[in-house]
Amino acid sequence: MEEGIKKIKLFGFICFLGVLCVGIGSILVLTFHSRYNTFITAYEAQVIIFTLSQAFLSATLSLLLAIPISRAIYRNEFFCKNQIISVIGILFVLPILVVILAVINVFGINGIINQFVSFFAFEKFSIYGLVGILTGHILINLPFAVRLLISGWSMIPTEQVRLAKQLGFNTQAFFKNIELPMLVKIAPSIFTIIFLYCSLTFSIALVLGGGPSATTMELAIYQTIIFEGDLSAAARLSTLQLILLTFLLILATRFTGNMFIEQTIILKNDIRGPKTLLTHWIDCFFIILFCLFIFLPILIIISKGLANIAIATDKLILSAMNSILVALLATLINLIFSLALCLLIVDEKRKFLKIIIEVGSFSIICVSPLVFGTALFLLLFEHIDLSANALLLTGLTNGVLMIPISLAILLPGFKKIKARYGKLMNIIGVPRTSELAKFYVPLLKKSIKFSCALVFALSIGDLGVIVLFSGDDIGTLPMYLYRLIGSYRMDEAYFVSMILLLLAFISFWLIENGNLNVFKRKQMSD
Amino acid sequence: MKIILSIFTGLVFFTSVLHSEVRQNLVVYTYDSFNSDWGPGPQLEKAFENICDCDLKFVTAGDGAALLAKLRLEGNKTKADVVVGLDTNLLKSAKDSGLFSPHNLNISLDLPIAWRDETFMPFDWGYFSFVFDKRKTTNIPKSFEELAKSDLKIAIQDPRSSTPGLGLVLWIEKLYNNESKTFWRQLADNVVTVTPGWSEAYGLFIEGEVDGVLSYTTSPAYHKVAENDNSKVAAIFDEGHLMQIEVGAILENSEKKQLAADFLAFMTSSQAQSIIPTTNWMYPAKQPDIEFPAAFKEGLSEIEPIYLDPNTARTLKDSAIEVWKRELRK
Questions:
Q1: Domain spanning B23-125+244-296: CATH superfamily
Q2: Of A244, A453, B56, B196, which one has the fewest beta carbons inside 10 Å?
Q3: Which residues pair with B133 in a beta bridge?
Q4: A190 to A249, A266, B105: CA distances (angstroms)
């Protein structure tokens, strides 16, 4: 084997080991700092059951709604279609606290919908309870699912659609023979990502769940680490969490054959299956419902932001710049890691090892961010000044923790290219060291841009795992936002939320659509 | 790849070099909002540096509970010299950690209760209370009974993740003892929701989603003084209000114990005490020479103080949370 490829492989393997460390390593660190015991209490069992069942329901509903909505969006042309597709994911980037306040403004006791309801003299409804949890989680995850499913619909080969038309398939037959196979292939992975996300948060479930019965494992972990200082209990809970969630991940991988989603959306004007008047109205219904559901909260934040418009202070500008720095760093690190891991996975010929690397890389998404932050803290605080390096560390951890998201976007492309051009590359003797630069990157330009845009926007809005430990008066935009609310300054907080939203949106749009020309060899792009 | 790695290590080095020591450093750990632009931190830092010939550096960590967690995680390797902002209801485990050293200060304070502790020095305090909006709630409840019997909707914080939340369950446990179960059952239909922290609950209140929120008797003063908004009012309960006393302490491992003690003494000085109330929105631990806005003292003299010493708080805590968890289940 050439010298160069050995180095690339070695680097990929180091990346993989680093990624594995995030999960198992974090728990080991916590265990070493505590007296370990393995018993699980009745309370913990209850919490686990609640966590998994609410995550299951949230993921199922998000997916079930996303299927008709994405289908309707994909099949129809309407006003601002492309813009809507690129904005829908944006609520995902807001700090949870702002999302909660936005939900309350729409669905709460005095929210828009209840005011509408009471105007017609109906009784107001209360959102708190399971409905609240599901609404909150669906609001965050539905756009994500819709976005990924739209690319699913666009993956259906045009030849199949033409053939179906020649055979005179009606709506049912078309769905059964053409659309269902695609859904079976990609739906489980979307389900898994949403499921894992919902099991690793606690604020939405607690606030919109309305009481202590809505306790998730993540809150139990927060309590043990922050309130009780009981690391052994935290280690025990997170071990359980990691095992359960990784098991689920493996199940999903086995079920689909692979975990991954085609990302590029090609909105060509091809035939998109049979239509009747009824399906047309159903499509309209879903599109309008979805737009109302997604855009009301966003509009509320923007209108509240505009109502409280203020002159940006130095601190605000500094925080925004810090946030951009963190996001840049996170995107860079994320890209390096994910490209290395993708190469490692597609180059691995032993099937067993390949699956281990795939599942292992994805398992980061199963680790409680708080546990990861605590472990990182315990490892580093003696050696470096954490508060001085807070931005660096936040960028690093954000980048690493988002690897599963970028892998979900990039890996299918890598696999496709390997399958299609792998032999060709060998025959024409492309040096293996330049495969990445000559094949993968130019051919997957769109996916890479989308992945970078998502990671960048997400880490602008993310509070970051080390927020508890960052310890300085300089901070990122989300930290600034939390400080405002913590100091009674709700009005300014809405202004900052709007800035955050705009910043995330603009950067997302620029990275995804901007022609930055970072990737040469444009002529090879699809 | 090598280039990226070297840039990376370079950055780490660079940021570390920037923080090399020149003057004597005093590292003070505190909670996040204490050192925000609007908190007392920046003003206190300036005032103390004027008299100490030292470099005061505030290091923040989330809220009061996270602050203690951070110190516990760091153990005896902590770089902190002083910590300010520990809450009396979590003080027992702070004491047991053995991380703190006696301050050897003899300062008389103006707290409603007698304070004697050789390790922890109070710098401000407050009463937990429910805050309502006068314009919407005409019958502000005068007791827990009235609140439970009313159809007012309130938001409270989770005692497992928030210090005011913990304060409420202790307050009720102290007042009702064995009857706390029954009381929580009565209160359950008033509780719209439970939030992980103070910010979410107060946000719900400001948005008008709930009639009242668990906060402090000093919260309305903020709205009056800073926003000229007279509508917020704290409900004063006949049974009395649980006190939250915020304390500072010197770390056992600090090599600057004298400077650290000077800082704790400074925190109770007239200068610091006149900064804290209108920035941290808590009552001063020692009455400074200046007069505070009238809004601050409203109803203060009518309140019956309830104080739980750290040991009692620790003993009550687990069962109080257990009762809360069971009776509030819907």
A1: Periplasmic binding protein-like II (3.40.190.10)
A2: A244
A3: B232
A4: 11, 19, 61
Q: Collect all residues of chain A within an 8 Å Cβ-Cβ radius of residue B4.
A: 332, 336
Whether residues B330 and A388 touch (CB distance < 8 A) is answered with no
Q: Is A129 an interface residue toward B (CB < 8 Å)?
A: yes
Region B187-207: what's the mean pLDDT?
92
Residue B5 is predicted with a pLDDT of 52
Residues 6 or more apart whose CB falls under 8 angstroms from that of A281 comprise none
Q: Show me where the domains of chain B are located.
A: 23-125+244-296, 127-242+299-327
Phi first, then psi: give them for residue B80, nearest 5 degrees: -75, 140
Q: Nearest residue on chain B to A110, judged by CA atoms? A: B209
Q: Do A128 and B193 touch (CB under 8 A)?
A: yes
Cα distances (angstroms) measured from residue A95 to each of A100, A201, A434, A476, B119: 9, 12, 40, 12, 38
Distance CA A261, CA A258 (A): 9
Task: Give chain A positions within 8 Å (CB) of B35.
Answer: 473
Q: Which residues of A touch B202 (CB under 8 A)?
A: 485, 488, 490
CA distance B14 to B287: 45
Q: What does the alpha-carbon distance between residue A354 and residue B99 come to, in Å, rounded to a whole number? A: 48
Of B42, B73, B325, the CB nearest to A378: B73
CA dist., res. A426 & res. A454, Å (int): 33
User: Is A256 in contact with A188 (CB distance < 8 Å)?
Assistant: yes
Q: CATH topology for B127-242+299-327?
A: D-Maltodextrin-Binding Protein; domain 2 (3.40.190)
- Please tell me the distance from the alpha carbon of residue A406 to that of residue A448, in angstroms, as a whole number: 8
Distance from CA of A163 to the nearest CA of B (A): 49
Cβ pair B161, A227 in contact under 8 A: yes
> Is A222 near chain B, with CB under 8 Å?
yes
pLDDT score recorded for residue A473: 56
Please tell me the distance from the alpha carbon of residue B94 to that of residue B69, in angstroms, as a whole number. 9
Select from B38, B70, B191 the Cβ nearest to the Cβ of A487. B38
User: Are B58 and A222 in contact (CB < 8 Å)?
Assistant: no
Count of beta carbons in the 10 Å neighbourhood of residue A417: 17
C-beta neighbour count of A278 within 10 angstroms: 9
Angle at A258 between CA A238 and CA A518, to 5 degrees: 95
Nearest Cα residue in chain A from B31: A471
Q: Does A385 touch chain B (CB under 8 A)?
A: yes
Chosen from B9, B35, B36 to mutate, greatest number of chain A CBs within 10 A? B36
Residues of chain B by 3-state class (helix, strand, coil), percent to 5: 45, 20, 35
Q: Which domains does chain A have, with CATH numbers?
A: 1-25+308-526 (1.10.3720.10), 33-307 (1.10.3720.10)
Q: Given this model, what pLDDT does residue B80 score?
A: 92
CA distance A423 to chain B (A): 27
Task: Please check whether residue A260 is in contact with residue A189, taking contact to mean a CB–CB distance below 8 angstroms.
Answer: yes
The complex's ipTM works out to 0.83
Are B119 and B95 contacting, i.e. CB atoms less than 8 angstroms apart?
Answer: yes
Question: Chain B residue with minimal CA distance to A114?
Answer: B209
* Biggest alpha carbon–alpha carbon distance for chain A: 77
3 state SS of B122: strand
Averages of pLDDT over runs of 10 residues in chain A (526 residues) are 69 79 76 63 83 92 93 85 75 76 87 84 83 90 86 78 83 84 81 86 86 86 84 83 82 60 50 73 90 87 88 85 92 93 85 82 82 84 78 86 84 80 80 77 84 87 65 75 84 89 85 62 41
A237 lies within 8 A of chain B by CB = no
| Beta carbons of B77 and A382 less than 8 Å apart | yes
